[in-house]
Amino acid sequence: MPNLDLSAKPRDLLEELLEESPAAARKREQATFEKAAGDRDQRIVLFGAGGLGRRTLAGLRSAGLEPLAFSDNRPELWGTDLDGLTVLPPEEAAAAFGSNAAFVVTIWGAGSTHRLAHSQRQLQQLGCDMVLPPAWLYWRYPEQLLPFYALDLPSRLLEDAQPIRQCFDLWSDEASRREFAAQVLWRLSGDPSCLGHPDPGEQYLVADVAKEQREEVVLDCGAYDGDTLRAWLSVRGPTFSTYFAMEPDPLSRQRLETSLTELDPAVAKRVRVLPYSVSNYTGTATFSASGSLSSAMDDGAGISVQCIRLDDLEPEFEGDVPTFLKMDVEGAELDALTGGQSWLRRTHPMIAIATYHRQDHLWRVPLAVNDLWSQYGFYLRPHNEEGWDLILYAVPPNRSLLG
User: How would DSSP label each residue in 22-58?
Assistant: First the structure.
């Protein structure tokens, strides 16, 4: 990428980023890892033996490349074979491979305080002279490894340059414009060091953009085990008149229902648990039910769950029209918005919706919400490190704090 003025105004930085053509980006994304790794491009140590490390190992093997080893900070893994690859302590991996292999940091997890710079600093202090971000390796083997959440090819982003510009014009404050430009830069550079730290406000409930409302009617799409409900009660107290908690994963839903027994009965009776997955149709689908935050719709093996359009959900509300919509549904956000167009265009609830599950959700989700009602104020806030839990807040004019 060209030398960038990172101190430039967000619009100027964005325009500079979007000057690169998709064709130039295709050449760059194919060459970045090999250029950085040089003659070590086939000698790779995966630093991080968690979910991302194992996923990377499987992808590289399908491309015909066998890494040298895993390395990990967890002592309980040292000396074990994980998916047939030895896990070494960092000191041992550095002694064996620090000067003759490329260490690729395969640590990238929602809820973690880890940043790429932490691992780079650790490994460099141990004598590793080549420590690279995972995105560059993923660009080298896109058929095997991409897309993966917000990671995807830079050329695909640049093909959407015009919608990205349109989305930039939606943001209502400078913090959102800065965050948006930084997120575009990260997707194009593969280096997350350009991203700031999480917003101090509670995820989905930031207090600096929208007025709180008494007797809120909450629709929580992707309620998981009740984590957002617990956060609401902790931050705002029982200020809702009704809380609709939608969770299709039976394991998570059971934990959610169990957690209600620990609440004040007067509060618990205001919570209604619904076993649906929101989508662009009403019917059944297969669902990967892992009981985790990443449980999602699945086009392969899984359990059968009920999908429902928001437009078809109104009978469940029994007259309690939601005034606050939270939506974090593991990549199905655009389908869910499509399935709720009629209802959302009539009711205009406050919306807190995830924009980090796909590369293009950064701009496609805000544009889709704007198509529903152009009077919203738009705010973008990160609630985790390195691109995770990036939330769009769409605020009706009567609830705006920032004008």
Answer: HHHHHHHHHHHHHHHHGGGTT-EEEE--SHHHHHHHH
Domains of the chain with bracketed CATH? 23-151 (3.40.50.720), 197-399 (3.40.50.150)
Q: Per-residue pLDDT averaged across 88-109, rounded?
A: 97
User: 147-168: per-residue pLDDT in tens?
Assistant: 999 999 999 999 999 999 999 9
β-strand partners of 47: 71, 105
Q: Tokens in use for 196? A: 């700031």
Residue-wise pLDDT tens digits, 211-237: 999 999 999 999 999 999 999 999 999
Terminal Cα distance for the chain, rounded: 37
d(CA 137, CA 206): 35
> CB within 8 A of 369, min separation 6: which ones?
337, 351, 353, 376, 378, 392, 394
138 burial (CB, 10 Å; 0-12 / 13-18 / 19+) is buried
pTM of the model: 0.94
CB of 348 closer than 8 Å to CB of 396: yes
Report the alpha-carbon distance of residue 350 to residue 326 in Å, rounded: 8
Position 294 scores a pLDDT of 56
The interaxial angle of helices 250-260 and 227-235, nearest 10 deg, is: 30
To 10 degrees, the CA torsion angle through 281, 287, 331, 347? 40
Sequential DSSP letters for 102-135: EEEE----TT----HHHHHHHHHHTT---EE-HH
pLDDT 10s digits, 46-56: 999 999 999 99
Amino acid occupying residue 1: M
